[in-house]
Amino acid sequence: MIRVGLLGCGTVGGGVIQLLRANASYLEARVGAPIDIVRVLVRDPDKERVAELDRARLTTDPEAVLGDASLDVIVEVMGGVDPARGYLTRAIDAGKQIVTANKMLLAIHGGELLERAKKRGVDLAFEGAVGGGIPVIRVLRDALASDTIASLSGIVNGTSNYILTRMRQDGLSFEAALKEAQAKGYAEADPGLDVDGGDAAHKLVVLAMLAFGARLDGAQIPTEGIRGVEPVDHAFAERFGYVVKHLAVAKDKGGGAGAGALELRVHPALVAKDAPLANINGVLNAIAVEGRALGPCLLSGRGAGDMPTAVSVVADVVDVAIAKKSGVSGQSTRAIRLASRAVAPLADVESRYYFRFSVYDRPGVLARITGALGERGVSIEQLVQQGRGSEDVPVDVVMLTHETKESAVQAALNAIGASDYVAKPPRMIRVLS
Ligand code: NAP
Ligand code: HSE
């Protein structure tokens, strides 16, 4: 028997219990022993839970799980940094095999926990932390171990992708779409992590560990969420032949030598309609990886929710259980080798840009905008003024630029934003190239 202690029984924990029950005999045959969840830690013992849970196994006492020497595997699906970090540290030190889907914890303390797990000779598995049910961690760690990764770009937050899709395709408001995502179990306990980009940044740190062997300070990753994307931006993007997506982007311009700063950022982006990422809608996630020898590779699937995430978490339970039974615990964790890498300043990054200026419709305004851009070397590719404003009623002037340095763009937008002819701060969205 593989005895499991489950820390947390919400959306993901509930899915794990359901999936283990539904596939019990198949999983038993695969592992060579039945998998049994013997303890389940929660905060509120009276909350309604999935029907498959034997409520006698619920506890609110961490000691009942962490102090149980008979457990083989600890599965952490509580979320947050504390007390999860302390619980996993203790479980590692006690020689337990570990599974977690907690990308926030991994992004902030993943390096330290992995080192600890290596020293103790246990596995720390985290397939559920990025991309829900998409097996991206295994692909980067194992399947692409022979290659070096030049870049990756991904839609890695299901809630944001769901909201952007519902706003664009069905005209829902941001608030209504977020409520739906929460009801479906996609959002974090604090949905600000989803819509302000923090969750995607955490996932980017985890992906960079696997793709580049990078140990990063996630706080340095330039991060923007989707709150500023308005329905009018979806309409203009469509007119120019693009779709607005929320992306996590990473580039290693160091040739795979494992040194130098990495370009990393999280933000909304215009993606050309015929690009694969443009057609990843709703809760789907996708990660486009560019291997130096492999070339492009796209992984896609359901990126959030109980069952997709449970698929990844239970697969990890199976792997660490088999490793333990075979006496090779710790191998998967030893395969991850990390070295500190810096994050390149955003000012140095080059991209194409979408600008939307809300300006008063006065003679000479367009010349002043294009002048401010031209003075800083920002070259315009396309420009549209929609409708007719007046001296007092603003109108949208929207443009796409050629490839330009971010520092020049920021300087031009600051100058334009401070002028008397704009009604609100300019909106800028980068274009994926
Ligand atoms: P959730 O629905 O909020 O569930 C959290 C569970 O942990 C609840 O059962 C809660 O107990 C318990 N818990 C939280 N803090 C606790 C504490 N201090 N002591 C004891 N129990 C505690 O969250 P979730 O959506 O399942 O997410 C769990 C983790 O998986 C997070 O790290 C999240 O980022 C990650 N994740 C989520 C998804 C997704 O689609 N939802 C996908 C991938 C990864 P009560 O039930 O009593 O409140
Ligand atoms: N809140 C996360 C999302 C859950 O929406 O992508 C999956 O990690």
Question: How is this structure best described in words?
Answer:
This protein has 433 residues and is of the alpha/beta class. It has three domains: 163 residues, Rossmann fold; 167 residues, Dihydrodipicolinate Reductase, domain 2 (2-Layer Sandwich); 85 residues, ACT domain (Alpha-Beta Plaits, 2-Layer Sandwich). Helix content is 37%, strand content 24%. It is built from 15 helices and 18 strands. The strands form three sheets. Strands 7, 9, 10, 11, 12, 14, 15, 16, 17 and 18 form a ten-stranded mixed beta sheet that branches. Strands 3-2-1-4-5-6 form a six-stranded parallel beta sheet, sandwiched between helices. Helix 1 crosses helix 12, helix 4 runs parallel beside helix 5 and helix 14 packs antiparallel against helix 15. The protein is elongated, with a radius of gyration of 24 Å. The mean pLDDT is 96. The site of L-homoserine has 11 residues, from helix 7. NADP nicotinamide-adenine-dinucleotide phosphate binds next to helix 1.
Which helices and strands, and how do they pair?
Layout: E1 2-7, H1 11-22, H2 24-31, E2 35-41, E3 58-59, H3 62-66, E4 73-76, H4 84-93, E5 97-100, H5 103-120, E6 124-125, H6 136-143, E7 149-155, H7 158-170, H8 174-183, H9 192-195, H10 198-212, E8 214-215, H11 231-240, E9 242-251, E10 263-272, E11 284-291, E12 295-302, H12 306-326, H13 331-334, E13 339-340, E14 350-360, H14 365-375, E15 380-386, E16 394-401, E17 404-405, H15 406-417, E18 427-431
Parallel strand pairs: 1-2, 1-4, 2-3, 4-5, 5-6, 8-13, 10-18
Antiparallel strand pairs: 7-9, 7-11, 9-10, 11-12, 14-16, 14-17, 14-18, 15-16
Helix pairs in contact: 1-12, 4-5, 5-10, 7-8, 14-15
The structure holds NADP nicotinamide-adenine-dinucleotide phosphate and L-homoserine.
